[in-house]
Amino acid sequence: MPGIEGVTVQPPESATWLVHIDRTMWVGGVRGLMLQALHPLAMRGVWQNSTFQQDPFGRLRRTADFVGRVTYGSPEEAEEIGRRVRAIHRSLRIHDPDTGRTHRVDDPELLLWVHCAEVMSYLEVVRRAGAGIGDALADQYLREQRRSAMYVGLHEEDVPGSLREMDEYFEEMRPRLRVIPESAAAVRFLLWPRLPGPLRLLTPAKPAYLPFGALCYYTLPRWARDLYGVLPEVPQATVTAALRAFRLAMNSVPDFVHQRVLDGRTRDMLRGSRERLAAAGYDVGKGLRGLVDPRRQPGGLAV
After folding, report:
1. Residue range(s) defining the domain that contains residue 231
2. Is residue 5 part of a domain?
3. Total tally of structural domains belonging to the chain
C-alpha cells in the first residue's frame, strides 16, 4: 500500500485527512464503540478478549493509535501495525453461548461490521459537527477507507465505498443487531467513562450541559437508540448544537495540550510524520491540522 512518496499513508489533500484531523473524532470513536456493541458476536469478542470492562477508554486510545498510523504514519508504520493487529486477531476466539459454537475474531463478517460502524461514526459525527464535508467528499472518504480496511485483513472490494453502499450495508445488518447484557453494560461504561488524567484537562469542552458520554449516545441513529433505550430522547437540534460547541472548543485546544490525551507511541508517530512532511516541503508551522486544504472549508480553514 503505497503512501505519498513514502511520506504518509494518506496525503494532507485527502478526504481522510480532513475527517481524521478533526477532534470531534473523539465523539465519533465512542459512538462507534456503542454502535459496534449492537452486534452480539462482535461485542462478545471484545468482552471475552480485552480489558474493556476495566478500561473502555484504553480501547479508544488504541483505536486512535491505529487510525493515526494508517492516516499520518509512514507506509512502513502502517504495514507494521496492520501485521500486529492481524496476528492478534488470528490468535483469538469467541465463544457464543447462544449456539455453543466458537468463532474466530478475524471472521470477515465481524471485521467488516467493526470497520463500517467505526468509519461511518467518524464521518457522520464530523459532518454533523460542521466540518463542511459534502456528499462527494464523503464518498471519497469511504473509498479511501476501503484501502485502510485492508490493514485489518479485509479485501478492498468487499468494503462499502460510498454513502449509498454504506446505507445498503446497514439496512442489511439491522435484523442481526440486538442488545445483549454485554452490550448494555458496555454502553453504561461509555455513558460515564472514567477519563484518564490528561483528558480531564479538556473538561471545559463539555458542551451545552450534555456530558460527553450522553453526547456520543445521542449521535447514534434513532434505530440504534431505540434498541438501547437507556436515555430519554432529547431534541436532535440540541444534540447538533452541543456537538458543534464541542467541536469549536476542542479544535481551539493547543496541540501540545490535546496530544497529552494520546498514547506516548502515538505522539512519537505524529512527531515523525511532521518531520517527514516538513522534509517533503510541507509547511508544518501550524501543526498537522494546519495542512488541511482551506479551499475545502467554507470561509477558510475551519478545522
Report:
1. 15-290
2. no
3. 1
pLDDT-based confidence at 194, cuts 50/70/90? low
Identify the CA nearest to 160 among candidates 99, 105, 117, 100. 117
CB-based contact 156:149 (threshold 8 Å): yes
Tell me how far the alpha carbon of residue 216 is from its chain's centroid.
12
Decide if 118 is inside a domain: yes
User: How many other CB atoms are there within 10 angstroms of residue 2's CB atom?
Assistant: 7
Structural domain includes residue 211: yes
Model pTM score: 0.90
Q: Determine contact, residues 21/303, Cβ cutoff 8 Å.
A: yes
Q: What does the alpha-carbon distance between residue 253 and residue 243 come to, in Å, rounded to a whole number?
A: 16
Least confident of 3-12, 127-136, 189-198: 189-198
- Tell me the DSSP string of the chain: ---STTS-SS-TTSHHHHHHTSTTHHHHHHHHHHHHTTSHHHHHHHHHHS-TTT-HHHHHHHHHHHHHHTTTS-HHHHHHHHHHHHHHHHH-EEE-TTT--EEETT-HHHHHHHHHHHHHHHHHHHHHTT----HHHHHHHHHHHHHHHGGGT--GGGS--SHHHHHHHHHHHGGG----HHHHHHHHHHHS----HHHHTTGGG--TT--HHHHHHHTS-HHHHHHH--S----HHHHHHHHHHHHHHHTTS-HHHHGGGS-HHHHHHHHHHHHHHHHTT---TTTGGGGS-GGGSTTS---
Q: What is the pLDDT of residues 265-300, one digit of tens each?
A: 999 999 999 999 999 999 998 888 888 854 444 333
> Considering the domain boundaries, does residue 9 fall inside one?
no
Mean pLDDT of 48-77: 87
